């Protein structure tokens, strides 16, 4: 593993930017103002969860709790939290 400028023992920015690493779970969020559409998939692309939730951090944290180990999240938003 290359030495990271962020963390000398490895990890940090270098590990974050390693796009060849496979992750356990992937999450896509469409985040408009009042409700968010959340989809979580596994490594094979199978949909594990697809729900429409209130646009709050608490709602997302509850839904994502079982999948947070090695979860990558991408967000498309038109507002800020």
Shape: globular
The chain-level mean pLDDT equals: 77
The assigned structural class equals alpha+beta
| CATH topology descriptor of the domain at 23-77 | Nucleotidyltransferase, domain 5
CATH architecture of the domain at 23-77, by name, is 2-Layer Sandwich
Classify the helix fraction into a percent range.
10-25%
Q: Count the strands? A: 4
Structure description:
This protein is an alpha+beta fold and 81 residues long. The protein has a domain at 23-77: Nucleotidyltransferase, domain 5, CATH 3.30.420.300. The protein is built from 2 helices and 4 strands; from the N terminus they run H-E-E-E-H-E. It has helices spanning 12-16, 57-64; strands spanning 25-31, 35-42, 47-54, 71-77. A 4-stranded mixed sheet has the order 3-2-1-4, covered by helices on one side. Strand 1 and strand 2 form a beta hairpin. The protein is globular, with a radius of gyration of 15 Å.
Condensed summary:
The chain is built from two helices and four strands, in the order αβββαβ. It is α+β, with helices and mostly antiparallel strands.
Topology:
Elements (H helix, E strand, L loop, with lengths): L11 H5 L8 E7 L3 E8 L4 E8 L2 H8 L6 E7 L4
Keywords:
about 35% strand, 2 helices, globular, 4 strands, Nucleotidyltransferase, domain 5, four-stranded mixed β-sheet, alpha+beta, about 80 residues, disordered N terminus
């Amino acid at each position: 593993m290359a030495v990271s400028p962020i963390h000398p023992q490895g990890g940090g920015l270098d590990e974050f930017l390693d796009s060849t690493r496979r992750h356990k779970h992937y999450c896509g969020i469409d985040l408009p103002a009042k409700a968010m559409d959340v989809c979580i998939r596994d490594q094979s692309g199978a949909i594990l969860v697809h729900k429409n939730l209130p646009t709050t951090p608490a709602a997302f944290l509850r839904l994502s709790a079982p999948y947070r180990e090695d979860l990558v999240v991408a967000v498309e938003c038109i507002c800020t939290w």
